[in-house]
Known about the structure:
With about 260 residues, the protein is α/β, with parallel strands linked by helices. The chain has one domain: P-loop containing nucleotide triphosphate hydrolases (Rossmann fold, 3-Layer(aba) Sandwich). Helix content is about 25%, strand content about 20%. The protein has 8 helices and 9 strands. The strands form 2 sheets. It has a 6-stranded mixed β-sheet, with helices on both faces. The protein has a 3-stranded antiparallel β-sheet with strand order 2-1-4, with helices on one face. Strand 6, helix 7 and strand 7 form a beta-alpha-beta unit. The two termini are about 25 Å apart.
Amino acid sequence: MMNKTNTVIEIHNVSFGYRPxxxxxxxxxxxxxxxxxxxxxxxxxxxxxxxxxxxxxxLTPIRGKITYxxxxxxxxxxxxxxxxxxxxxxxxxxxxxxxxxxxxKYCFLSPSRxxxxxxxxxxxxxxxxxxxxxxxxxxxxxxxxxRVLIARAIIGDPGILLFDEPTASIDSESRQIFQxxxxxxxxxxxxxxxxxxxxxxxxxxxxxxxxNQELYIHDVGKVSEETLEKVYGxxxxxxxxxxxxxxxxxxxxRR
Length: 255
Ligand SMILES: Nc1ncnc2c1ncn2[C@@H]1O[C@H](COP(=O)(O)OP(=O)(O)OP(=O)(O)O)[C@@H](O)[C@H]1O
């Protein structure tokens, strides 16, 4: 059920710190709309991952409020962490990891359905993982592991997907598969993606947020060179991984 403001998540004056008197997120306010595609960029340590974790409900704001529409959305958030944070030494096969994403959805409702291989196998085909379903995850490349984590998030039928640097260290085949899967998902759910990778900023991106503790958000109909210039003119000290930083420009306020 859609609320009257056509918003799925409202982030209102949210602040967060891991330690007292050391805020990582400062008074952040923005909204996510039903088919939004929001890319978040900013310097290392600027709080992008922290913000995703706060939105995913893994961290609690010390001030401010996050409202989910409908409230049940809070339990349907798909979060794909940076794959380097996943311990690939776990003794699991690709299929096992993908099926882990189903646990939240099915374990209390219908455990037998949670055990079915049909859905994960279909999804694996889409992500070109079907030939390696029995492979231990310890033997996967970075791009394959990233696709497995994406499959694990999608299988749970999320109402929104949050990605943390999904295209970092992946090859062009994985990147293309990722872009086409995201395109398909974005037809019915919002996507929020943290990235340092300018080439991951697809045409479909609707908003770009620049953050360094504070967050500035721009509406973009189309990501043009001009837009990218505007984006990299955000109040950040440095955009890492080879993307040039620019002289600071003013922002017309936050959305
Ligand atoms: N669990 C934690 N405990 C204490 N401090 C943390 C923790 N996680 C992150 N931080 C600190 O919070 C700040 C923001 O980190 P975060 O990972 O959110 O930034 P980021 O913008 O995602 O950075 P990057 O672009 O390098 O991934 C950093 O100074 C980091 O050291």
